[in-house]
What we know:
This protein is mostly helical. Helices cover 74% and strands 0% of the residues. It has helices at residues 3-17, 29-39, 42-56, 69-76, 81-87, 89-102, 106-121, 127-142, 145-171, 177-187. Helix 3 (42-56) packs parallel to helix 5 and helix 8 (127-142) packs antiparallel against helix 9. 24% of the residues are buried.
Amino acid sequence: xxxxxxxxxxxxxxxxxxxxxxxxxxxxxxxxxxxxxxxxxxxxxxxxxxxxxxxxxxxxxxxxxxxxxxxxxxxxxxxxxxxxxxxxxxxxxxxxxxxxxxxxxxxxxxxxxxxxxxxxxxxxxxxxxxxxxxxxxxxxxxxxxxxxxxxxxxxxxxxxxxxxxxxxxxxxxxxxxxxxxxxxxxxx
Length: 188
């Protein structure tokens, strides 16, 4: 097993699908349709490949926790529903891997909280993502009773943080200093 090779693969693939020139939602409707008809959404194709390769790592997955949490988060925040549905479960698998190794998933939890703050501040994330994140991880947890309550607590924590981060991002353009201050206090 060549850790560096796999690490390079995942980082390169995530860099590819997150590049600005592939963010189809930023294009005009006409350009979006033309690209879709000619090439399809390459982000989805590569995202599915990342997902498939992740699950083929077997026992070596633990080597990528917490290092791959940020890149996977960046990929799941792409506003493409099928890509999100296919890749958000990787987070549960990461939690499960760390839990099976250490009895907790603190490294994963700390990393996702840190990276989520950075990504939302950069303009990524939305209400729909928050709902998908909650429903997918909750559903995955139900199949593993031993970790279910920990995952539900984690999901609740991340959902609350994401709500506050999205509120904060929304009020930063608000003229009212009181609204911005209130939102900052809530976030802290």
